[in-house]
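User: My instructor asked us to take a sequence, write out its structure as tokens, and then describe one feature of it. I'm not sure where to start. Here is the sequence I was given:
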Amino acid sequence: MTDTTTDEPTSTTTWAIGGIAVVIVLGALVRVLDKGVPAWTKGTGFGGIAAVIEYPVYAIVLGLLGNVVLTQLGLRDRLAGGFRTEFFIKTGLVLLGASINFAVIVSAAGPAIVQALLLISIVFGFTWWLGGRLGLDDKLRALLASAVSICGVSAAIAAAGAVQAKKEQLAYTASMVVLFALPSIFLLPLAVDALGLSQAVGGAWVGGNIDTTAAVTAAGAIVGEQALQIATIVKTTQNALLGVVAVALTAWFALRVEQRADATKGRGRELWERFPKFVLGFLAASIIATVFTSVVGSAAAKPLITHVNDLRTLFLTLAFVSIGLEFRVAPLKEAGWRPVGVFASATVVNLAVGLGLAVLLFSGFGT
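Assistant: Let's start with the prediction itself. The structure tokens for your sequence are:
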């Protein structure tokens, strides 16, 4: 008789390795396209467009195409264990910290905190109110409000744990986040250009409004290097508040909805468990790079920082490929129009309030 107790984990690991291999192959193809397309199309009608297309565009498009192909072959779900978007994006963002002088983070921290607190409060409150008006379940309201006001899927996961939401509600919310985030990657940079916003204001708008950290990074990279830095600072500030919101939701649902008296126990420990640890890595990388540069000089530090940036681009490319590979349509088909309407309305409010705050708080940044 064959013992299958060890075969299944081995098989799962093998498929996960295969998934990682798919991501790496597509990532390598992204690099070929990023370097080759501008050269291949130079002097043609498409050459001007190709020259301004950034690597996140190629990565996401190839990821979506790979998603379709693997789904048709019946391999996508088996390989999904290797589509490690969260790991790739967080590693890339920690490495991004090395390219940002810590003085920039300090100077941007004040406006970023103000923006994050106001945006989260206004957008969360509006989403919660509208969801109630349309009769949504309280747990789904909490997931949608957290996702659209803080940081997308990560916020939805934290909120789901806090309010003990159903898996179907989490899957639906996560799919909604990706559905809205993907076009934002391309539309917000176009809007930044059309409105003539500065890099700092554009980055703050992108960082405060796109719901996933990966999509924020992609859009920020398209707008420009300074926009990417500001967008990352703004988004990591919002991420840092995730633990606070999760603990508040836990206490609210326990005390008001489930009426449990022990809701406030262990708040400090839960806050730490919810806190996104990569934020500390991002700050540490910035501090280390800033001190290193001040000690050896910018000329001596530049080659090492360049290598770190190349590594950062590699991980971010793998993250963007994974975004396309992980996108699912099925959960969206199972819900009615009301959650979509709530999320879309909240996104519009988020865009409007976020633009106003970005202009108000970041217009004079760096001048």
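For the description part of your assignment, you could build on this observation: The chain has two domains: 1-83, 85-362. Try explaining in your own words what that tells you about the chain.
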